[in-house]
Amino acid sequence: MSSQTGQRALPGGEPLDVNDPRLSRFDIVREGARRDDIEIVHYEPQVAPGTKAERRLVRTVAGFFLLTGLAATAFLAIYIWWPWEYEPGRGGDKLYTPLLGVTLGVALLGIGFGILTWGKKLLPKEVSIQDRHEGAVPAEDQRITGETMAYMADELGVKRRPLLGVSLLAGLLPVGAVAAAPLVGGLISDPHKDDQMMTTGFAPRDGQKIRLVREDGRPIRPADISAGGQITVFPGVEHGVSNRYADSPTLLIHLREDDAEASRRNNEREGHGGYMWGNYAAYSKICTHAGCPASLYEQQTNRLLCPCHQSQFLITDNAKPVFGPASRRLPQLPIEVDAEGYFVATSDYTEPVGPDFWERP
Amino acid sequence: MKRRKFDVAAVPGNTARAVDDRFQVATPLRRLLNKVFPDHWSFLLGEIALFSFIVLLLTGVFLTFFFEPAMTEVIYNGSYAPLRGTPMSAAYASTLDISFDVRGGLIMRQMHHWAALLFMAAIVVHMLRVFFTGAFRKPRETNWIIGSLLFWVGFLAGFTGYSLPDDGLSGTGLRIASAIMLSIPVIGSWVTAAVFNGEFPGTIIISRFFIAHVLLIPGLLVALITVHLGLVFKQKHTQWPGPGRTNGNVVGERMFPRYAIKQGGFFMVVFGVIALMGGLFQINPVWLFGPYEAWVVSAASQPDWYVMFLDGSTRLMPDWEITIPIGEGYVIPPLFWPTVVLPGILVAISLLYPFMEARHLKDYRSHNLLQRPRDVPFRTGLGVMALTFYVILTLSGANDVIADKFHISLNAMTWAGRVGLLLLPPLAYYVTYRICLGLQQHDREVLAHGVETGIIRRLPDGRFVEVHQPLSAGNGHGELDYAGWVVPKKMNRLGALGPAIRGFFYPIERPAEAPVSPGHPPVEPRPEREEITSGETRS
Asked: Which spans are transmembrane here (chain A) (predicted)?
């Protein structure tokens, strides 16, 4: 720890001769830092070599690393030999993922804390100061760069030969469009093709009215639903019960006598007279707000709630929205019973089903 | 001594010299090794996001080996008995396979999902740190903009990612997304048809989301993160004010080895925590939701947390529909405002804020020193106001769950959200402003009159007064100026009391540290440490 102050260069002073054999390695490090405008102003060992504190810290770090090895080995053993295949019930396979997580987590935390302890406790503490050199960019440099760039434009002579610039622009613009064209052209798809936004699976085919069917495909008789009950129905066509007809799921509701009376009255007012069959009414299940299935039907109040954004529709009043963000009532499906006694759709929905859009008539 | 033909000890030196002769890397490498980083716990929040992103890349690549991004209908025949024989999309079936039939697949899936949630959370918390301390000011506006964009790109990454399994929950989210696109005036139906290739759901959306999720969006994220870090590196990190710290320097530790070791260790810790979460905490159990069917939904369908504020804004929006009576009539659905316009406004405000503040304060200088939130009450107030707005929206995104668990009327929750969204943010601004002023005043008070000692003195006339320990050396009052950093307010921060006894099994005795800026040793070297050595003995 002898003093070598005399040979140390002050910041901005003469650089140190790094070939001087009397310099320690740290002196060279500090000289290097200095050349990068970094001053190491505080450098102090945290533990004295050979002390109890040092040995304890070394043991801690080593312990962390060994814990990692242990946990990682456990991970491998579990990964290979633990029964992992899914079995119904409470088998050991339910512990497979948690055990992997714990062993992997402990292994990674062990190495993490080991490294952190090493770096934070065993390494000497240091405070260094580095100059930011901000705002030190001389205005002259900025000017030189600016002039260099301006001179490039001069060399090209765009100013003197404006035709070149204009024609280049005129030539490149279509090239840009060429790059965009395949993407836009490939993706674009006419939303009104086959009137797809206005029709559902209930549109009559070949003059044949479409039956209402359950999820398993069976048609429905009026007696299948008790008063106050409801059932989700689908168009009785091929793949009718699938996402191919994502706009077709419909709620068939058997209203109680007085509710049905009110409902019929309100239907007449809206020009939907005859849409109901007896005390049965069918409304689209697809919320007019964001397209979730509005599927929580409250029998007491005849309200239908959409669980996504809590729009509520009053079934006895044409499924009018009475609360929440929906602004349009659920479309009603006109229904009747065919000769064999099964429900059919008299026609398709008379207004578009599902979320609202700009050109909705 | 026998002469060796091959000197092993000289190999590293010779190699290094050979490399440097060809590439001249020694000087830049030394600069890199020596670069000084300031240290504070709050500077590590952004790192959590970075490390989560690395975990996302690692686990994500694993998942792509087993995931089949197709909507082809298949009949499930895997290990999970309750769903056997159910028709479903290939995407959902392969997600079930990853969960049940790929050894260790479930933990990878869960780690991936947890890492994504952590990624977004770390971004938000990091952003709050940067905002409240004024770290976004000149010259760092660009990085603020990139950071804000990272949130939204991360948002897209998250949404496209959790839509991929094509389960009952995510399919509902996808349907809502299609409704949101549909609500855009004029082009809505064209946009939706282009994205879904026709009517919802079509047969191609999962494949498109897949390529966006595994290539396009991660590519964008990697690019943005690279620039973000590059700029932090180039512009050097901000630092808290403190002794020896000025606007023109960086006080801290050199990058190697200390700072790098801390980073590496911290990465391992983040990775380990994600592994623990992925193993112990179930997330997105898609097998319970069933395949997506357009007619099935359950209550308590919540998206991932960072999407919930949009869900909340959608729930709170009144049913204001705008009809335009031209021709057959046109409609702007109420869905448009909370899901397209509101995020648009939020993006614009967050991108422009640094410039708006600089203009408002007419402050166009460069700032490398951070500000304590209390010292800029209006900004802190604005931040808390925005945070309140966000939290109300997020809570409203789960208002059906809250209503259910606490037996509150659902409609009351909605109305509380609507009213709260308008009233609480301004209130939060006012309260925060007052708290900031109060904290400022207390700092000044301590600087002027000293620290409360807890010692009560009785005066001859019988009055009791508390003795204060002045902070300045002299006996005078009001000599100290506020320097923008922590004012010690307890006697043991002044070293007047014995340090708390540390150690778990037996006490570890250490001298009390002098009061310093958060987490830093003092800069002034103590006199007996004037001699700087490496600790090595030398002649």
From this structure: 61-84, 96-118, 163-188
